[in-house]
Write a sequence for this structure.
């Protein structure tokens, strides 16, 4: 018995996550269900082969013969997906998990040299009976008929667990999922789309959607945006929170006042549910850098780029705006079929020059002027770098890139040059227009910049900004979330130290310890700083971001510059800084 247990421990199949796919996703464009499985002790292809067999058997036995399956093998596991009717996605999760359990049972039995035939035993028949009942309880033929009719009439629709709706913005009409209308009584011509764009990337997403909102406001349109901070229509914030997934998109597109929609689409939302909508008029990928690796089978920056590029699947005719200064996007672009508009800090970027020679649209900087060049080669001088407040007179290179991406996206949506110029002139990185992103404060004769930098890429962007600004001394407060690896925390700290700060404050963020001990992250920051040459008395601890901010302010002198990386308690830090600024 002991030997048998030891043998069984050699194979490990760990179900990490099981979820519905409601939109176009990394694996394919079908609704259904997906599971992520960690695999060790057995060939991953063997796991896939057996799972495919189990899925097909279950499809046959629950009368889902028209459904299909696909998979993705990653470094330490596999992602296994099945398609399913949109009105049976919870049942699809159950079926997928059952197929995985049958696969697990088979492989464990095979390792023990035992016979395992699942499709004739009572346990299997009970599984099939239960799945059939779950499917029968979930199906909604009226819903599926309405969706088919909406597609036939080329009418935009949205569906969730509670509601079905037709049209976007002012034309939207909603029904309870259990009280759907007769399609024959619907005037399909009354429901319309609104201009819609998707924005994704590792950093700069929220800033980009907020710039786009300002651009459309200048163009006389009420623009709705979703982001990781809030959902807003025009100047009205509908709700605070992370609305970068499908629920935020539905809430915005169902808002009567929305005339344009700019949706921030985060990596997590794409991998958990797929795209929030099937069709968009344009999309922007700001950049791709190492962040949140190790989740949903995404273990490399290359895989992360592929996940973010899912937004291109929503573009049947629209333009995909890409950053030509990002090597990961340059490498990914040949695999994409969308019409691309490239942007870069340099007119002489080889990607831009080649793309322009092929008749493609580009956006770039020439002699401090941001310029858009259309498909016909016609150039439009949009605005000077120094006329864009968020660039800090050109010091914030990352915000010049954000402006370029926004210009290219706006032109892809046929916005006038005057509206774009006006918006970029008025948009500031203050706490009202772009909270948490490069917000600047004056305290005495010293400057303080607060930012949300939370990965190496964004940390380096803010350090680069500070390096380009003149100051007597430079101080920095940093903190990191506990779900980062030790190496990620070390790398982010080393990026901060490139500023050669006169003082570094390590602030605890207790709500983001995520299984780490109190003081553990600050100790790692301190160790890294001292090992990099910082004197121990130039490294301070803080109980939280507010305490850290007070410690920084206490050290500030005339002509100094402080960077505050604030991941939590942002509103409290803002109030503290505003109070100090008025003294």
């Amino acid at each position: 018995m002991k030997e048998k247990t030891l043998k069984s421990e050699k194979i490990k199949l760990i179900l990490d996550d099981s979820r519905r796919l409601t939109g176009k996703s990394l694996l394919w464009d079908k609704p259904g269900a997906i599971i992520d499985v960690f695999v060790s002790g057995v060939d991953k292809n063997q796991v896939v082969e057996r799972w495919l067999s189990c899925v097909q058997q279950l499809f046959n036995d629950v009368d889902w013969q028209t459904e299909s399956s696909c998979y993705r093998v990653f470094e330490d596991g596999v992602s296994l997906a099945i398609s399913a009717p949109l009105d049976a996605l919870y049942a699809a999760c159950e079926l997928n998990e059952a197929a995985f359990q049958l696969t697990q049972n088979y492989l464990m039995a095979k390792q023990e040299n035992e016979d395992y035939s699942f499709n004739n035993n009572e346990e299997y028949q009970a599984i099939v009976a239960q799945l059939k009942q779950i499917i029968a309880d979930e199906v909604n033929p009226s819903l599926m008929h309405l969706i088919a009719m909406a597609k036939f009439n080329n009418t935009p629709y949205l569906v969730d667990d509670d509601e079905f709706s037709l049209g976007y913005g002012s034309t939207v009409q909603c029904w309870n999922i259990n009280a759907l209308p007769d399609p024959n009584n619907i005037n399909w011509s009354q429901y319309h789309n609104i201009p819609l764009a998707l924005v994704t990337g590792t950093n700069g997403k929220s800033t980009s959607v907020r710039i786009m909102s300002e651009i459309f406001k200048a163009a006389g349109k009420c623009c709705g945006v979703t982001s990781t901070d809030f959902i807003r229509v025009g100047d009205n914030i509908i709700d605070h929170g992370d609305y970068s997934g499908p629920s935020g998109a539905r809430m915005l597109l169902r808002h009567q006042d929305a005339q344009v929609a700019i949706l921030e689409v985060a990596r997590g939302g794409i991998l958990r549910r797929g795209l929030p909508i099937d069709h968009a008029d344009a999309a922007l990928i700001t950049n791709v850098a190492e962040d949140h690796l190790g989740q949903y089978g995404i273990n490399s920056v290359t895989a992360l780029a592929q996940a973010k590029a899912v937004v291109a699947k929503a573009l049947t005719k629209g333009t995909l705006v890409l950053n030509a200064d990002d090597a990961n996007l340059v490498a990914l672009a040949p695999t994409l079929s969308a019409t691309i508009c490239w942007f870069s800090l340099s007119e002489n970027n080889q990607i831009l020059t080649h793309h322009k020679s092929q008749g493609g649209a580009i956006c770039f900087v020439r002699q401090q002027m941001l310029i858009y060049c259309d498909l016909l080669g016609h150039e439009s001088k949009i605005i000077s770098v120094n006329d864009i407040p968020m660039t800090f007179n050109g010091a914030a290179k990352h915000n010049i890139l954000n402006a370029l991406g926004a210009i290219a996206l706006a032109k892809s949506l046929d916005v006038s040059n005057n509206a774009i110029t006006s918006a970029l002139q008025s948009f500031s990185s203050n706490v009202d227009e772009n909270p948490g992103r490069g917000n600047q404060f004056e305290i005495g004769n010293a400057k303080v910049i607060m930012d949300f930098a939370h990965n190496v890429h964004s940390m380096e962007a803010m350090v680069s900004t500070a390096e380009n600004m003149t100051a007597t001394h430079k101080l920095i407060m940093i903190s990191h979330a506990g779900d980062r690896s030790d190496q990620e925390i070390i790398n982010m700290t080393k990026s901060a130290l490139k500023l050669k700060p006169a003082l570094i404050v390590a602030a605890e963020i207790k709500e983001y310890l995520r299984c780490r001990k109190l003081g553990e992250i600050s100790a790692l920051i301190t160790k890294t700083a001292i090992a990099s040459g910082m004197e121990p008395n130039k490294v301070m601890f803080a109980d939280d971001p507010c305490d850290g901010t007070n410690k920084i302010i206490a050290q500030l002198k005339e002509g100094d510059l402080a960077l505050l990386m604030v991941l939590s308690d942002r509103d409290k830090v803002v109030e503290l800084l505003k109070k100090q600024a008025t003294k």
User: Anything to note?
Assistant: Residues 2-138 form one domain.
